[in-house]
Amino acid sequence: MSEGTSLVMETSENGTDLSQDDTGTIEETPEDTILLHQTSVNLVPFIGQRFVSQDAAYEFYCSFAKQCGFSIRRHRTRGKDGVGRGVTRRDFTCHRGGYPQVKPEDGKLQRNRKSSRCGCLAYMRIVKRAEFDVPEWRVTGFSNIHNHELLKTNEARLPPAYCTLTPDDKARICMFAKAGMSVRQMLRLMELEKGVKLGCLPFSEIDVRNLLQSFRNVNRDYDAIDLIAMCKKLKDENPNFHYDFKLDGHNKLEHIAWSYASAIQLYEAFGDAVVFDTTHRLESYDMLLGVFLGVDNHGVTSCFGCVLLRDESVPSFSWALKTFLSFMKGKTPQTILTDQNACLKEAVAIEIPGTQHAFCISHIMAKFSDWFSVLLGSRYDAWKSDFYRLYGLEFEEDFEDEWRGMIDRYGLHENKHIISLYALRYFWALPFLRRYFFAGLMSPCQREAINAFIQRILSAQSQPDHFVEQVAEIVEFNDRTGSKQNMQQKQQKVCLKTGSPIESHAASVLTPFAFSKLQEELQLAPQYASLLIDEGCFEVKHHTQMDGGYKVIWVPCEELISCSCHQFEFSGILCGHVLRVLSSNNCFHIPEQYLPTRWRINGSSCTNPLRNTTREQSDKIQLLESMASTLMAESIETEERLDAACEQIAMVLSRIKDLPRPTTYANDMVYNCPSDLILPEVEDTDGMVQSFTIGNSQEPLSLGKLKEKRSRDGLDITRKRRHYSGSSFAQFGHDSPDCPIIGGDSLNGDTLGYL
Q1: Which contiguous run of DSSP H or E holds residue 537?
Q2: For every residue of 200-258, which 3-state class applies, written as one string?
Q3: Where does the SWIM-type domain lie (predicted)?
Q4: Which helix (H) or strand (E) holds 118?
Q5: By three-state DSSP, how is residue 119 classified?
Q6: Where are the alpha helices (DSSP H) in 393-510?
Q7: What is the pLDDT of residue 214?
């Protein structure tokens, strides 16, 4: 390409795409009419072009440069607003861009190599943008001005950027190496196989030798079989650590999965909605990383387990799901959220057919720049906004009608991606998923928290020899952070904003995280109008809305509530439509079944103690919980207060156990709770999370006996740490080994804390 046909493009301040020839003349150029000499239209970069990742942009520009006759290199830069968010801008430049650096005269002998850099101005700039919580890389600058001769067609393969080894090439070279062939023999044989002339392969002898050296490094230092040894070590240190693996016919590690001690307890309480993320790979082991995640009653991300897979096949995913369920005692989640993967979809249908499967919308929309950016051109932004609006609709009928309108408006009737998305709409569109419980995992803030957690796990691969141990520290740190946050939330004074009795009732039962969600709905409730249209049936709509609305069913005698928006089924939090009906009809409390156990302050308890109780008994239980919280806050002020509290609680517990216990509780009350009295965690001045366990002894347990336990066991219970993040205060009364909190393990009265 000659210099006279070169173009330079940059985004102006008002967003107009500008083009400039080498004479300095600037003119507006439509992005879809840019043509360069000797290039295909589809390969020419244009302002506004989108890519799913930096690598995708690099590959595109690399193909363009190779066809033009020059090589490229990466140049890393950061945007002004990129502090703490990584790279937000990157420039790809001609390999001859810039000028050679002047080396300091330090007396050392330097190699006298002539630099190829001559200040070439050709480049492509991409900037990271996030729309609808999905990051994309957009072209904001492009120049094809060169001040040097471009390579001829037969020379374009010589620059290092174009010396590439495909996965098939790597596999063939590995096989040849095992057969004992020399590098030159490999090159001659591959030239014959590919039918190319001598020396015309897209890679050189040096590339092959470097590849073989990397194979040797992997086999020596980062052999994935060492993962088994790591897991065995953790199992020996903690019997509650679980792991399993599978070897192939060559005795090579094929799959491995593991789960930490705290995961089973967390999954028992919060495993109703699970995210199975399989979108990342561990380069250290060249294996697919899968992470099972959830969210607890305080909105903190919980890790249930990890798995490494050799490939993305149906048998691999089936093995991962089956192994995970074996760790979790066979309990299946209500819903599972994954990437859009055909093999994973089939594996979920086979292993957990009763679980509602959904695709993460952010993973789907991340592919849109590749699928639709070039196809739609300037209409891409408008189409993406329309799609996201359709995704969030509330009613299935509205989705079907507006989807057809969108297809007609953008002429996408024959597009294969649109056809596939519509066929799979029951897996990603919210109108078809609102009837199922996802615990808020589809919200942008939860997706961001999950992505941050996975990034910390990926950072652990920098030490592959200790990867599982590094991940264990990350999980433990996350549990401690969640425990600290939980304790801080418990001690915070709840701020009531509406003055509604419903708000006061919810504040005494729900965690601050869940209560804040309900409080938002309570504040929106007065904006709705409620109209009784039939017995027990109400029409609720916004005061500015003339038509439509929501249908709310309320049967007071049965304490039955439902709304056509299905928000309670979807998130476990009542919607403003229901709250409007309750407040308008003088209902001053929320029925117990609409305050889910998983969102309660003691959401990790085995069984909700307020279930099947009378109103008077329920009030007394809530009063007891309130007193326990106050006792905790007051006791941790000093060591003297703490000792006094432990002594008095032991006396009260002993006295209660002496009272007669009926064979059946009044009104069939159920108290399936742990046999030990566990005080919530507190934080000492040194930042260490503490827990206290008072044994279920038949004799009164005094402070003196507590001190005897300290000296006998060599432990200080005020410093004992535990991994279990939930708290269950003032719950006792049985010795069942089946309690999910205890996990069926043999814990006697002398046990201090949880494993």
Answers
A1: strand 537-542
A2: CCCCCHHHHHHHHHHHHHHHHHCCCCHHHHHHHHHHHHCCCCEEEEEECCCCCEEEEEE
A3: 550-586
A4: none
A5: coil
A6: 396-410, 416-423, 425-428, 444-459, 467-491, 501-509
A7: 67
Position 755 scores a pLDDT of 27
CA dihedral 709, 715, 718, 719 (to 10 degrees): -170
Neighbour count for residue 27 (Cβ, 10 Å) = 8
- Whole-angstrom distance, CA of residue 640 vs CA of residue 703: 12
DSSP 3-state assignment of 517?
Answer: helix
Q: Which helix (H) or strand (E) holds 646?
A: helix 639-658
How many DSSP H helices and E strands does the chain contain? Answer: 23, 21
Question: What's the full length of the chain, in residues?
Answer: 755
Tell me whether residue 617 is exposed, middle or buried, using C-beta atoms within 10 angstroms of its C-beta: 0 to 12, 13 to 18, 19 or more: middle
pLDDT at site 615: 52
Q: Which two tokens stand for residue 522?
A: 């309570």
Q: Which residues, 6 or more positions from 385, have their beta carbon under 8 angstroms from its beta carbon?
A: 132
Phi, psi of 532 (to 5 degrees): -75, 120
Is the Cβ–Cβ distance between 724 and 692 less than 8 Å?
A: no
> Six-digit token pair at 696?
């279920």
Q: What is the 8-class DSSP label of residue 437? A: -
Largest distance between two CA atoms of the chain:
99
What was the pLDDT predicted at 603? 56
Neighbouring-strand partners of residue 124? 92, 142
pLDDT, residue 586, reads: 84
The pLDDT value recorded for residue 293 is 94
| Distance (Å, whole) CA 274 – CA 356 | 10
* Tokens, residue 371: 């699928």
Contacting residues for 469 by C-beta, under 8 A, at least 6 apart: 230, 234
Residue carrying the six token digits 């997706």 = 447
The structure's pTM equals 0.59
For residue 154, the 8-state DSSP code is: G
Nearest to 389, CA basis, from 377, 401, 372, 371: 401
428 near 358, Cβ under 8 Å?
yes
Nearest by Cα to 652 from 681, 671, 636, 628: 628
Is there a contact between 574 and 521 (Cβ–Cβ < 8 Å)? Answer: yes
For residue 35, CA distances in Å to 19, 40, 42, 49 come to 12, 8, 10, 15
DSSP string, 580-617: HHHHHTT--S--GGGS-GGGBTTTTSSS-TTTT--HHH
Give SS3 for 336: strand
Picking from 512, 517, 490, the residue whose alpha carbon sits closest to that of residue 579 is 517
CA 141 to chain centre: 32
Q: What is the Cα–Cα distance from 746 to 737, expressed in whole angstroms?
A: 8
Could you give the CA distance from residue 626 to residue 178 in angstroms, rounded to a whole number? 70
Q: Is 64 exposed, middle or buried (0-12, 13-18, 19+ CB in 10 A)?
A: buried
Residues of the chain with pLDDT under 50: 1-6, 12-41, 80-84, 220-222, 604-613, 664-755
- HSE-CB of 496 using CA atoms within 13 angstroms: 11
Task: Give yes or no for a contact between 1 and 68, defined as CB atoms under 8 angstroms apart.
Answer: yes
* Residue 300 near residue 293 (C-beta atoms within 8 A): no
Task: Supply the DSSP string of 265-333, one letter for each residue.
Answer: HHHHHHTTEEEEEEEEEETTTTEEEEEEEEE-TTS-EEEEEEEEESS--HHHHHHHHHHHHHHTTTPPP
Please report, for residues 247, 606, 612, 624, 733, the alpha-carbon distance to residue 670 in angstroms, rounded to integers and kept in the order given: 47, 11, 7, 17, 10
Distance CA 114, CA 657 (A): 89
